[in-house]
Amino acid sequence: MVSSSITDGEHAPRGAPRVSRAKPPGHPLLAPVLGGLGLLAGMLLIAESGRWLPPDPPPTAPAQRADTPRQTFPAPARDMRQGQAARKIAEDQIAPPPLDPSGIERIEPRPPLGELGLAPRPKTPMPRDWRGTLLFGPVATSAAVFEAMGRTVAISGTVDIDPNRTCTFDHTAWPCGQRARAAFNAWLRGRALKCLLPPDADRFAIAAPCALGKQDVGAWLVSNGWAMAAPTGIYGKAEAVARDARMGIFGPPQ
After folding, report:
1. What is the pLDDT of residues 105-118, one digit of tens each?
2. Rg for the chain (alpha carbons), in Å?
3. Rounded CA gap, 193 and 205, in Å?
4. Is the pTM of the predicted complex or chain greater than 0.70?
5. Can you tell me the distance from the alpha carbon of 200 to that of 202, in angstroms, rounded to the nearest whole number?
6. CA nearest neighbour of 185 among 224, 227, 150, 142
7. On the CB side of 57, how many CA atoms lie within 13 Å of its CA?
8. C-alpha dihedral, 29 to 30 to 33 to 37, nearest 10°
9. Which of 58, 100, 148, 164 could cross-link 135 (Cys pair, CB 3.0–4.6 Å)?
10. Which of 161, 129, 126 is nearest to 143 (CA)?
């Protein structure tokens, strides 16, 4: 049996055998695949829509209708009582006891706990025409006096020890004045001292502050016990340390 196909615009002649219209060939798996891809694309669009859409506006309070009565609160009541004093409770236990001014005694303030609380002593300004002068080859003539370059200089702020002075320690006398002069000479060793001198210091002996390098000469003499501190000087604490340590003239024979 031979089958034939007839197009849409043609009709079978009379008497010819009827045959079924042939369907064009198709793809039965293409439609489910396309449907699955479309479903996946829709899910992705729904998931990514939150990034581009603006956030939801915050909820606003519902507008109050004009005919709705507003809620009012009663005003705080005022205390109309005036001129009445507050009632006292346990007056004997809370109120301070009466004081008799005649029994109060004013005493002196206590001394400070340390030297940090004391105001520093004002430094005496030196005259403007005084200048630092180097004195070479100094020779000690006593515990706190030396000669150099024709000048005689006493270390300011110190009390000199006479070379003929004798000190006693544990009932033993020894020539502390000569020993103090020798100690000063041994420390100098002929090195130059820088002293603050007036311009006319050549004509008379003068007390002046001196330094050997960065070392204050007066501080070295007093702290080692080879000179005493002047009452109005700045070496009082150094002398107290030397006395406690029994150094120099305050100690045993040397």
Report:
1. 888 887 777 666 66
2. 57
3. 16
4. no
5. 5
6. 142
7. 3
8. -170
9. 148
10. 161
